[in-house]
Amino acid sequence: MARAGLSPEVLVTAAAELADEIGFENVTIGVVARRFGVREPSLYSHIRNANDLRVRVAAKALGDLADQLSEALAGRSGREALLAFAAAYRDYGRDHPGRFTAARMPFPLDSPAADAARRHSELTRALLRGYALGEPDETDAVRLLGATILGFVTLEAGGSYRHHPRSADASWNAAMDALDVALRNWPTAEEKASAGAKSPKPGKDL
């Protein structure tokens, strides 16, 4: 019988909080059950299994982050939008490290997590409208932003930048400047074709 007060939403919220406290990889059905002082079987009337719980946490994390990104973009365009968008990602990663990890887990394409992930793509494209990129350049730029921002935040969270006198903030600002320059000066199809024609052929001495 389901315990009064428990629901999928309550369990997912608790699991998300635990992810930030102890790490997403350490969140189990048992850990969540102990948070509520119940036995594991009490949870199975609300969630199917551990993977179901993890995907639900991922969906919550992605949805919450999408809300913050949407708020960051409101009324902004171009460089200002880029900086606000990237800062929202970084802040979320710092404030909610476990949920940020959850947001990057694999999930079924027909799950709520996938729907939330699509919001991220749509918001990124909304940001890029300020740079007036057509296709396929816009898709390439979406992937560039994802690789740069998510890569930086992930490495920073893992402590990769702690052992160098150059501060992470300084490198972050430099990366944002570089992204803005790249987006404002994205090569046209003609420029790409011209550059390709000038490149040395494979096997030719340089």
Automatic annotation (TrEMBL):
DNA repair as UniProt keyword: no
Annotated ranges, domain HTH tetR-type: 5-65
Keyword Transcription: yes
Keywords for this protein: DNA-binding, Transcription, Transcription regulation
Matching Pfam families: TetR_C_33, TetR_N
Domain of life of the organism encoding this protein: Bacteria
Residue range(s) of DNA binding per entry: 28-47
PROSITE patterns cross-referenced by the UniProt entry: HTH_TETR_2 (PS50977)
One MF annotation (Gene Ontology) recorded for this entry: DNA-binding transcription factor activity
Protein name in UniProt: Transcriptional regulator, TetR family
Protein source organism: Catenulispora acidiphila (strain DSM 44928 / JCM 14897 / NBRC 102108 / NRRL B-24433 / ID139908)
